Task: inverse folding
């Protein structure tokens, strides 16, 4: 089993702080710029990197991440290219965990066994597949765990105590708590509700709890970092990519630095949260 | 467990028809889908539910729909006898309301207070808006921007019925995009909202329950054909987009081995053109909208936009039970192009005084090819699943006529 995730959360615990998990879309707005962003994330303060595998029909995502995925696909991004980007990152950084996040069809189309082999070789540590609930664990979750990858599950406000054990059963690495019932990048979570949810999850699992959906500012991130083991930021980062593009939708010299500067601010928020 | 001696035993407990079907949804929706499954199981076992549904189907929808011998069409084709199951005579003009009536009663049993739906041609949206008006429930319909432009009369109908129609601009603005947006709404409104899916697709238990509510078509036809001819038909023909009218006609006949069954897919500008909606003919298995099924997709597993002159067939997937019926060979699936469907549309109006929807015009186009090759004692039963009033603008524009 890949142990970068476990090692990273252990290090965070010993530092006495929460982590920052950043989501970027592979190939958005183009492969070169996207690689520059990913390569710069650890220095900017990302503790764990989630890389979105673009999909034509992202049913759980709001307009911002939909647009990012579309930009990547229009620029020619494929699953194979996404894996190559992870491999390139791994040549520079062997410690920061990489989690691929997306939907099942591109993986199913690639072939589950071929994908898992390629993902392990590229240096991927975990998978978050939005449309594979525990009811479909035989598809990818169990083969992924057998291949040595963490399968990170989403728990949501609708996942009640009766259902949690099934959701957590094959989960490893960390648990991703979806702070709102809704799609990505819409409304900000209520921190007191999140706090109760994290306590509830901790009664069921020893795994770290990362909280995401709707965290867009250093202040939101700091508030969540007080109560959770990590805060996940996605849409705000993809929005920053969009804001830095030229009128034709292409990257500008501001794109990578602009995104990394936002990540620095978010990291400062997370790191200062418990002081 | 599925009974291996029957084509009618599926799905299994996890919602699979062979390798197809399943429940590929976000965790937020999973508890809702399980709740729906329980509610549907309970309703199925409740005689009061069955009699309530029967009441509304008879007095409001106007069932049973007639079985009609298309005599002039039969004479013109010079071969097999052609019968139409007249589901275009239902209230709202299509088969869609059979399913909407079943699901709205289910939603009421579950205590849901808000209904959402997706629509392509607008027929399902109109049927949903209709039953929501009937039972006084607020209704939101997601419809692709492209479809809104080509189906204006249905948009206006939905508005008259009190529904809110939300244009979907993502993707190509057609049915698949409308379904994505409806799922996003559902994820954000889990407490009070019922998602009334219009076709026999989506996560389990939708393919099963939509099929069951549409099976009234085939159940009636079986009895009516016995009365008319004293026997079963030899061949069934129905168009497939998501496949709900087809599975409704086919399912009651699946275990009658002498009945040949044909589903007709929209081939758009032709299979070779790449502009079509023939997922069974030209797609391969994948996972979208909660189920595994045949999909139109790229080598990288990205879903591609379908094309058909008929907005109701313009979907890159197909209900999972059809995928299974294709693989088992029980049902044959054939493509029919836009031009062939348009020709059948005109023939039906001219010969039978029935303006069919462009969707069943695809089925009829195949009937016009098949019937002349068969003997006069062969009986073809085609599902005339919708009327064509909504399509006259599209047909006029294809003919260069401006209305």
Result:
């Amino acid at each position: 089993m890949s142990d970068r995730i476990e090692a990273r959360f252990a290090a965070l615990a010993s530092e006495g702080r929460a982590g920052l998990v950043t989501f970027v879309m592979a190939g958005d707005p183009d492969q070169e710029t996207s690689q520059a962003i990913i390569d710069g994330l650890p220095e900017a303060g990302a503790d764990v990197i989630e890389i979105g595998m673009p999909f034509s029909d992202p049913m759980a995502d709001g307009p911002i991440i939909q647009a990012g995925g579309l930009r990547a696909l229009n620029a020619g991004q494929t699953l194979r290219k996404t894996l190559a980007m992870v491999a390139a990152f791994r040549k520079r950084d062997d410690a920061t965990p990489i989690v691929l996040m997306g939907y099942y069809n591109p993986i199913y189309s690639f072939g589950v066994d071929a994908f898992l082999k390629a993902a392990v070789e590229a240096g991927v540590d975990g998978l978050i597949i939005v449309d594979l609930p525990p009811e479909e664990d035989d598809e990818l979750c169990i083969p992924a765990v057998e291949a040595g990858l963490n399968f990170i599950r989403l728990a949501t406000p609708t996942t009640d105590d009766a259902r949690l054990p099934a959701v957590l059963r094959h989960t490893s690495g960390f648990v991703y708590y979806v702070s709102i019932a809704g799609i990505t990048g819409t409304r900000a979570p209520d921190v007191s509700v999140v706090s109760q949810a994290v306590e509830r999850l901790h009664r069921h699992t020893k795994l770290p709890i990362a909280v995401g959906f709707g965290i867009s500012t250093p202040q939101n991130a700091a508030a969540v970092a007080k109560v959770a083991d990590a805060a996940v930021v996605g849409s705000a980062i993809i929005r920053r990519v969009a804001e830095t593009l030229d009128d034709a939708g292409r990257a500008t010299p501001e794109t990578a630095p602009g995104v990394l500067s936002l990540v620095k601010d978010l990291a400062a928020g997370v790191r200062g949260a418990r002081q | 467990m599925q009974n291996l001696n029957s084509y009618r035993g599926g799905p299994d407990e996890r919602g699979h028809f062979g390798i197809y079907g399943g429940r590929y949804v976000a965790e937020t929706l999973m508890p809702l889908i399980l709740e729906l499954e329980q509610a549907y199981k309970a309703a199925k076992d409740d005689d009061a539910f069955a009699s309530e549904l029967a009441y509304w189907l008879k007095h409001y929808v106007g069932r049973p729909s007639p079985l009609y011998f298309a005599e002039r069409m039969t004479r013109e084709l010079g071969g097999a006898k052609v019968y139409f199951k007249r589901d275009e005579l239902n209230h709202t003009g299509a088969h869609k309301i059979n399913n909407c009536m079943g699901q709205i009663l289910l939603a009421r049993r579950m205590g849901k207070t808000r209904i959402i739906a997706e629509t392509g041609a607008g027929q399902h949206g109109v049927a949903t808006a209709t039953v929501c008006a009937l039972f006084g429930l607020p209704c939101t319909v997601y419809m692709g921007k492209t479809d809104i432009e080509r189906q204006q009369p249905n948009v206006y109908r939905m508005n008259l019925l009190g529904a809110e129609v939300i244009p979907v601009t993502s993707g190509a603005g057609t049915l698949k995009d409308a379904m994505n947006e409806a799922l996003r709404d559902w994820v954000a409104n889990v407490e009070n909202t019922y998602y009334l899916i219009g076709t026999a697709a989506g996560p389990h238990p939708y393919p099963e329950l939509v099929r069951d509510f549409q099976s009234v078509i085939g159940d009636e036809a079986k009895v009516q054909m016995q009365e008319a001819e004293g026997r079963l038909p030899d061949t069934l023909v129905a168009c497939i987009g998501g496949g709900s009218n087809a599975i409704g006609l086919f399912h009651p006949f699946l275990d009658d081995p002498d009945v040949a069954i044909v589903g007709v897919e929209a081939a758009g500008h032709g299979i070779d053109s790449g502009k079509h909606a023939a997922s069974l003919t030209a797609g391969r298995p994948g996972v979208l909208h909660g189920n595994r099924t045949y999909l139109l997709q790229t080598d990288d597993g990205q879903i591609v936009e379908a094309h058909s002159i008929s907005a109701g067939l313009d979907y890159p997937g197909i209900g999972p039970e059809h995928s299974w019926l294709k693989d088992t060979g029980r049902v044959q699936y054939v493509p029919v192009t836009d031009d062939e469907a348009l020709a059948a549309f005109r023939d039906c109006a001219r010969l039978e005084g029935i303006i069919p929807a462009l969707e069943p015009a695809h089925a009829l186009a195949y009937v016009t090819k098949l019937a002349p090759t068969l003997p006069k004692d062969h009986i073809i039963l085609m599902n005339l699943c919708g009327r064509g009033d909504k399509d006259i603008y599209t047909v006029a524009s294809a003919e260069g006529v401006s209305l």
Q: What stands out?
A: Chain B has 16 helices and 14 strands. The longest strand of chain B covers residues 260-268.
